Each structure stands twice: as structure tokens, then as C-alpha cells.
Amino acid sequence: MSQRQVLQVFEQYQKARTQFVQMVAELATRPQNIETLQNAGVMSLLRPLLLDVVPTIQQTAALALGRLANYNDDLAEAVVKGDILPQLVYSLAEQNRFYKKAAAFVLRAVGKHSPQLAQAIVDCGALDTLVICLEDFDPGVKEAAAWALGYIARHNGELSQAVVDAGAVPLLVLCIQEPEIALKRIAASALSDISKHSPELAQTVVDAGAIAHLAQMILNLDAKLKRQVLSALSQIAKHSVDLAEMVVEAEIFPVVLTCLKDKDEYVKKNASTLIREIAKHTPELSQLIVNAGGVAAVIDCIGSCKGNIRLPGIMMLGYVAAHSENLAMAVIISKGAPQLAVCLSEESEDHIKAAAAWALGQIGRHTPEHARAVAMTNALPILLSLYMAQDSSEDLQIKSKKAIKNILQKCTYLPALEPFLYDSPPNILKHVVGQFSKVLPHDSKARRLFVTSGGLKKVQELKAEPGSLLQEYINNINNCYPEEIVRYYSPGYSETLLQRVDSYQPLI
Amino acid sequence: MATLVTLQNRLQFIESQYYYRNRFVDEYRKKEYEAAVKIQSWFRGCRVRAYIRYLNKMMTIIQKWWRGYMGRKQYRQMVKTAYLTMKMNFYNEMAVRIQKCWRSCKIQKYCFNYYYFKEYLRSISDTNQAIREALEEFVEMQGREKKKADREKEEKRKQHQARKTHYLLSTKQIPGVYNSPFRDPDPMEFELQKVRAFQMTSPVPRIQQTDYEDLSSWLACTSKRAFPRSDILPPINRKQCQGPFRDIAEVLQQRYKPLQPTLRVATSINAVKEAQEELKREEWKNRVNDNVFLPFSNYHKNEKYIPMIHLQPKYNGLSYGQKQFQAEDPEKWISNKNFQTVFPPFVLFDKYGKAYSRAGEIV
Q: Which Gene Ontology cellular component annotation is one that this UniProt entry carries (chain A) (predicted)?
């Protein structure tokens, strides 16, 4: 046999391996093939190929493994159980950039499913090599490593702490400053994942000087990058007043308000989340946002979108209004209350309605002036109907009841209160009658109107237990009117009159 | 004696008398005794009662005085307290009045200042208005940019399409598909007329844009490599160093400001020489024939070169501008060449440490 024939055997073998790996990688992209592949024992076949002599085969095998592990957590667990991770980690440090990319992809795919799997990756010592990969020259490798780190840090505080301890944060901050948009995006996302767990982790991110760079990128044209940047900033700001102030000091206002007008829905959502996280801490921060015109921008943003995108904006209005009456007034004059009432009526999901109800309650609870502004938007009947509706969730019922109570206790705007006399349950009726009993003694026009609109009649028909608070309120109202009128409107008065006719002896 | 007899006569009587009397006494003794007791007891009783009455009277007097004293004392106390309470009430009332005024004043001035509040609300609505307008403008601008980009893209696509289907252009003889003789020509037809078809031949060789910098060009060298450029942001937050140093911002500004060379430095030393060489090269390039053309006629052939009279040595030549009138001591020279002066005057260095402006002038 000639040398050529001998070599041909090897060549064929190599071709077959390449083809196999490529086909598997191809097949693994489609979800419907995964089960078949798994049943055919693809894991045990791919594992030796990771140690193949040909680099292309190694890379493709890693790619196929990553795709499989990406699919569900059973396969990811199979990767962990098959002792593949140590090999990957070993070769992550040694091989060329294509292999690094593929290996980081596998780690990412495994780590994304559950904290246990991510912990398994950490136990293999992958963090150190991934951090070394962050220093690579190739942006693709950096990107893959940052992505894997982000997915590991996402699960819980301990894993994030492990990532931080491996020294990833300063390198991620350097990655943000790279020119490649994709790398920036993923590094920002990883920083967001790290800082979301605890104030200490967020503080480490801040100490690495991330805020200044993140704040610079708010005006970037790329929508996905903006999403991640805003998310990272809000995750940093959410923990404490200090961190929120650090974020504010990076001069993100009024720049961030432009993001509320973005075409991308998630940019809007993340921007409102950022503003909410800052506003919720102290009245001063809220005041700063109000002074920057943030409330108006958020209200416009709420008006321009639907569903879950609105939620952070609605909550932000509630937080701002909850701090003080001046801030609540600012929300009112920025036309926040009508917008919230619109949200309350047109949203379909209970939790958004609940948030809107809560925000309205926060706005209206300060002074009669506030309550009046809320009542004028016609939100009270909607709140009542939400409270009474059978299919509302428990949370929504509680929130709307509280809001109604808060507003009613301050409300002196009688036209809005009047409908409540007719169709409200006793526990709310109590507050309504109480408000009437407070206002009527001092307002003669209202007294007249109360009689002509039939309110007095309704009050006489109420059944109150003697000695209860309600009875007291009713007595207060009755004391505002002459006795004849009260008697005239009492139920059964006509019968007593007729009885008197019966018993009357004619004078002639 | 007689007396005696009388006496004796009387004795009888006396005895009887004595007897009677004793008997009488005895008879009444008890009664008398009882009477005496009664009388005594009555008298004593009277006396004791009188005494007690006296004591009681005294007691009443004492009590009257004591009670009067105590009463007065208590009364005085009461009056004092009442006076005090009255005073305190008055003071409190006045204090309330003062506090009321002061608090209302304070609250109206600092907390619920109506005008301030109005101003605050007005400013907020102004800000809101401004920010709404600004955002509106921003969105509009974005929309415009997007539209422009879209339009450009569309234009490019159309042009590409037109170039690709350039063969559909109508010729003088045959009208194309877009140019129906029965209708007005399609806009695509004009598009086709405007563009050029893709060349089927091999593409034009690209002119290589090398980023080659002539290292001999001193200015380019400094600007690109030697000095940091100002478009790199200086470090964000650095602590102030301890000691008598200048403000960091100032130092950084000095350090990172772009180089502004003087005009003399801005041109290179051998610019003239380079220009000559360049000219020569250009000439050489454009020359068709390297052999110098000779004049056609033989008229000047035998003409002799006659130098100028001033250049002839026997007239001593021109001394001005060529000859030095200063005393020279060639032994002290370290080199035979003259120095080339290219640097700015040294006045600059006298004022070292002050800010410079362009062209070395001192501000």
C-alpha cells in the first residue's frame, strides 16, 4: 500500500468527524431536534471531540454543546455531570480565540438555567479564566466572557459576590469603554446583573467608576445599549440614598428624559424604572426630579404607551406624590391625575390597575385641594367599581379600598361624593356620610343642594345602629336642618300624616 | 345661888331639851345629811358646770380665734393661688396670642407662603412646559433624521436597482418596458437614464490609501505620536495632591492642551530643499526625453562666455553681502558651518511657567 492510501484513511476519518460535528451543531439550532439528539446519546459522543486534535472540530463541538445546553436545564445538567466543564475551563485559558468564544458560550448556556448550575461553573474555577478572557484582544472573546459572567452573576448575591471577588468589575468597566456596541451592551448588562443583588455589590460597581461611563452612554443611538445602560443605572440606584445620589450626580437629568420619548418600548420602561428608583428614596431626590421636569416627561410617557411599560412610570408618580404635599401638587399640576385615571380605566391587568389606584390614593391623601383634584378626574367611581368587582384580585381590592378611603377622608368636593351615597358598601358609606357631616354645617348652598338632590332622603333611609359612628354623623347632618324637613324626608312620614287625617275631628 | 337654882331648875329642861333636841337631831340627821348631800351636790354641780361652762366658753374663744386665724390664713392662701392662676391664665392667653401670631407669621412666611407656593407651582408648570416642548422637539428631530436616513436608503436601493436593471433602458430604436409608447414614461425610465450600468469588466483597481506619514515631517510626527491629544478625556476624579501644587484641572489642561507651534516651527527646516526636490522630481516625471534638446541653429555655437565685470577677480568683486567686516578668529570655531536658527526666541523661556497662547506670545 502506498503512503497515499494510508493517509487517505485518516483524511476520511477527519472528514467524517468534521461533518458529524457540523451536522450536530446545525441540528441543535432547532428545538424539535433536541430530544432526538439527546436520546441518540449526543453528549457522550461530543465529549471526546472536545479533545480532538483538529481545532475546528473542537470549536464546533463546543458550539454544539453550547446550543444543546442552551435548550433546557436537563441538558445543561448533563453537561455538568459529564465532567465537561473542567476541560472547557482548561482549554479556555489555552486555546485560540474562536475556541475561547465557543467555550464561553457553553459556560453561559449552562449557567443561565439555575443557581446550582452556575455554582457548578464557579466550582470548576471558571471565573478566573473568564476574567482573563475579559482582557483578551478580541472583542468577540470579551463579549462572550462578559456574557457568561453576567449570566452567572444574575442568579443570586453569593454568585455575584464570587464574580466580584474574581475581579471582573474593573475589567467590565473597561469593556464598557470599548468602541464595539455589542460588547458595551453586554458589559452593561453584566454590571446590571452584578449590582442588582445588594448595596455592597452595587457599591463595588460604583467604586470601579462605572457610573460616569454609563451616564455618558445614555445618549447613544443604539436602543439595546440604552436599555442595558438604563437598567444598570437603575439597579445601582435602587439600593440606597447614597447610591441614588451618586447616580444623580453623574448628571443624568435631563438627558435621561429624552429616553422617555424613545421609539423602543423597553428603553422607555427602563428609563422610567431608573427615575422611579431614584425618586423613591427621599423627598429631596423627588424634588430634584420634579425641578428637572421629570414628572411631566413621565406623564407624557405613560400617555404614549400601554401595558407593563407604563407600570414603573405609574409607580414613580405614586412615590413622588407620597413624599409631601408640595410634590403631590406638582404631580397634579403636571396633569398626572387625569392620566392615572385613564390608566385605571383602560388597562386590563390587575396589577397595573392596583398601581394606578395606589398612586391616586397617594396623590389625594394630603389635603382637600389634592382630593378635589383627584375627584374631578372622575377616578372615584372607577375605584369603587374596581373594589366592588368580583373578579378583581385581592391586592387590587385592598389597594383601591385604601385609595378610596384616603381620598374620601380629605374630600370636600360634594358633587363627587354624592353618587357614593347611593351605591357604596357600608364601610365606605361611613366615610362619605362623615365628610357630609363635616361640610354641611358650614356651607348653606351645599345644604340646599343636598336636600334638592335627594341626599337627605337617602341619609334618612340609612339604617345605623344607635351609638355607632355612622349614627353620630347622621345626627350631625340632621342637626343642620329644621325638624320638619328631616321628618318630611324620613321614611313612613306619609303614613303618619294619613293617620293624623284619620284621627282628626273636623271642627264643624 | 339663885342662879344656880334657876340653873338647876332649868337643868331638867335642858336635859329634856337636850334629849329632844338630840332626838330631833338624830331623827332628822339622815334627812339632813341627805339634804346636805343634795345641796352640796347641787352646789358642786353648779360650780363644776359653771367651771365647765367657763372652760367651754374659753375653749370657744380659743377655737374662734384659732379658726379665725387659720381661716384667714387659708383665705390668704386661696387668694394668692387664685391670683396666681388668674395671672397665669392671663399670661398663657397672652402667650397663646403671641405664639399664634408668630406661628402664623412663620408658617405663612416659610412653610405655606401662598405667594411662594404659587410661584413654585408656576415654575413647575413652566419647567414642565419647557421640558415637554424640548422633548417634542427632540422627538421631531429624531423623526426627521430617521425619515432622512430612510429616504436616503430608499434612494440608494432604487439606484442600485436601476443600475442592476439598466438593460431595460429604452434605446433610440426600441422603447423599454418602462417607456410605453401609449403612456407617459414610468419614473423608473428616468432613473435608468440617470444611472450608469454596472461594469462587467474587472473592477477598477483601488487606490491604496496608506496611512503613511512622512517621518521627516516633524510637525506630523509630534502631533500624532509624541504628545497626548486633547480628545482623550483626562482621568475623571483624582485627589488633590498634598503640597504647594497647582490645581489639578489647571495642570491637566496645560498638559493635555493641543500643541500650537509657532509659524517658524510649523514649517520644517528643510522645506525649501524639499520643495526643490519635489519640483525636480515632478519635472523628471513629466519629461518625455532625458536628452536635453540642443538649439537647432549653429549661430551661438562659437560664442564665448563673457563673465560680468564685477565678478572678475581683478576688479576685486563685490564685497557687500559676501564679505564679513567683523573680526574673525577661525581658531576658536568649533565647526566650519553656520548654525541654523529654527527655534523661537528665548524670551519665551524667561516667562516659563506662565500660560502660553498661540505662536509663543505671552498672555
A: sperm principal piece
Yes or no: say if A175 and A138 are a contact pair by the CB < 8 Å rule.
no
Cβ atoms of A75 and A46 within 8 Å: the answer is: no
Distances (CA, A) of A233 to A69, A190, A210, B141: 31, 12, 9, 26
Return the bridge partners of B356, or none: B362
In this complex, which of B121, B131, B138 lies closest to A333 when CB atoms are compared? B121
A334–B121 CB contact, under 8 Å:
no
Determine the distance from the C-alpha atom of residue A36 to the mean position of all C-alpha atoms in its chain, rounded to a whole number: 39
Alpha carbon distance A63, A53 (integer Å):
16
How many CB atoms are closer than 10 A to CB A178?
A: 14
C-alpha grid cell, residue A265: 418600548
- Helix, coil or strand: residue B356: strand
Alpha-carbon Rg for chain B, nearest whole angstrom, is 73
Joined grid coordinates for residue B312: 572678475
Q: What letter represents residue A111's amino acid?
A: G
Report the gap between the CA of B148 and the closest CA in chain A (Å): 15
Q: Which residues of B touch A260 (CB under 8 A)?
A: 135
Please check whether residue A254 touches B, CB under 8 A.
yes
Query: What is the least distance, in Å, from the CA of B131 to any CA of chain A?
Result: 6
β partners of residue B362:
B356
Q: Compute φ and ψ for B117, nearest 5 degrees.
A: -60, -40
Mean pLDDT in order along chain B per 10 residues (363 residues): 82 82 83 88 90 91 93 94 94 93 86 83 89 90 93 93 85 81 82 79 47 40 43 58 77 78 74 90 82 67 73 61 68 77 59 56 49
Question: CA B211, CA B338: separation in Å to the nearest integer?
Answer: 37
Tell me the Cα Rg of chain A.
34
To the nearest 10°, the Cα dihedral for A82, A83, A84, A87?
Answer: -160
For residue B130, which residues of chain A lie inside 8 Å, CB to CB? 293
Question: In terms of residue numbers, what domain contains B77?
Answer: 22-100
DSSP A282-340: -HHHHHHHHHTTHHHHHHHHHHH--GGGTHHHHHHHHHHHHH-HHHHHHHHHTTHHHHH
Look at B138 and A258 and tell me if their CB atoms are within 8 Å. Answer: yes
Judging contacts by C-beta atoms under 8 Å, the chain B residues touching residue A296 are 127-129, 131-132
Per-residue pLDDT tens listing for chain A (508 residues): 678 888 888 889 989 999 999 999 999 888 888 888 888 888 888 888 888 888 888 888 988 988 888 888 888 888 888 888 888 888 887 778 888 888 899 899 988 899 989 998 898 888 988 998 888 888 899 999 999 999 999 998 999 999 999 999 999 999 999 889 999 999 999 999 999 999 999 999 999 999 999 998 888 888 899 999 999 999 999 999 999 999 999 888 888 998 888 888 999 999 999 999 999 999 999 999 999 889 999 999 998 888 889 999 999 999 999 999 889 999 999 989 999 999 988 888 889 999 999 999 999 999 998 999 999 888 888 888 888 888 888 999 999 999 999 998 888 888 888 888 888 888 888 888 888 888 888 888 888 888 888 888 888 888 778 888 888 888 888 888 888 888 888 888 888 888 888 888 887 7
User: CB-side exposure of B275: number of CA atoms within 13 Å?
Assistant: 6
Considering only CA atoms, which of A183, A251, A250, A192 is closest in space to residue A222?
Answer: A183
DSSP string, A427-488: HHHHHHHHHHHHHGGG-HHHHHHHHHTTHHHHHHH----TTSHHHHHHHHHHHTS-HHHHHH
Provide the domain count of chain B: 1
The C-alpha atoms of residue A424 and residue A385 are separated, in whole angstroms, by 9
> Does residue B1 sit within a domain?
no
CB-based contact A135:A146 (threshold 8 Å): no
Looking up cell 433536541 gives A34
Residue B16 C-alpha from the chain's centroid:
148
